[in-house]
Amino acid sequence: MHRSPACDSKLEKIVTISQTGSQERVDRLHEIRGDIEMSRFFFDVAAKTYVQYDYRGREFSDPADVRSFAELLALDMGCTDDQDRAVEVQVRNIHGKQLFSVPISQPNVVAA
Question: How confident is the model at residue 81, as a pLDDT?
Fold first, then answer.
C-alpha cells in the first residue's frame, strides 16, 4: 500500500496525537483527519440476468485498497454454490461511473 508522504505525515500525527490524550490535541486530531481525503466506492455484483446494486458503498483513501477489496469480494462470491452465479464485481464511484470490474472465478478454478 503506497501513500503520499503528506498522507503518511498526517497519519503519523494522528497516532501521536491520539496517544497523548489531551483535549487540545484531540481537537487537532479531528482537524487533521478532515484533511485525509476519503472517497466512497460502490461494489455492484453482476450476474447474467441482473445486477445487485450496492447502495451503501464503502469509503477508501487508497485506490489500491479499493481493488483489493473488489478482488476479495469476487473471491468470496466465487465460493458460493448459487445456481444463478454472479459473473463480476463492478466498482463504481460516487457519480455512478464504472471504474473497473473484477471477474468472479468458478469454484473449480478457485480451488486449483
Answer: 61
